[in-house]
């Protein structure tokens, strides 16, 4: 097995996407992925290959030349994050995943904090725990907002569409909550996701959303976070399937909003953290953490 860095080109972006689809048993489904999803997947890979070449690796079979696994990780100031970790089924349990994760972790060796949005896969959870991460059980809210009257009433905190020009505000919120700004990730996210921002004397925060999914939410207070999540749900078209992922017990404010909106709560993997408690009020992004 050979390890090489992921390159910032279309070929490697396609390779990472193919490995991911195979690892999560979506190979046949991926052929029917909407064009926009493929664009986001490829763009994320190339973005991270540019910003974090030492954190993005492919495992290659030296005989066939085929990719066996892929890992994408970032280092943002003092926080390391694992954005993607995938090994094709026929290579699982053969040391490929360990080699990839070990190489990616070297990219964050100087970071005091680490964050991974882990799935329910028991092998991955074991690997993360052995790597020194604390496993915080996570929840997911899903469903359709049937009765909007159950949502909290607007409390005077204004929410407005954001742009990349609010990056300094968002970086400031990031540092307060997770110890490191997302920095260039905001420029990538704003290209693909809708953005809502709060910037007032009572607090600040932001929320990225795509269709019915809350991609990332961060705020300086529960009041602001509740207002952002409520506004995001109110702006979704009627009948939209909603997903609010990666919620730990520290995010009860989000669970309360979701239950008031008629959403259902279920178990959903782990939020894996090193050197930090679950940031709150915060809903992490699986891809951008």
Automatic annotation (TrEMBL):
Source organism (scientific name): Wenjunlia tyrosinilytica
UniProt cross-references to InterPro entries, sorted A to Z: Acyl_CoA_acyltransferase, GNAT_dom
Domain N-acetyltransferase, chain residue ranges per copy: 1-158
Molecular function terms from GO: acyltransferase activity, transferring groups other than amino-acyl groups
Protein name stated in the entry: N-acetyltransferase domain-containing protein
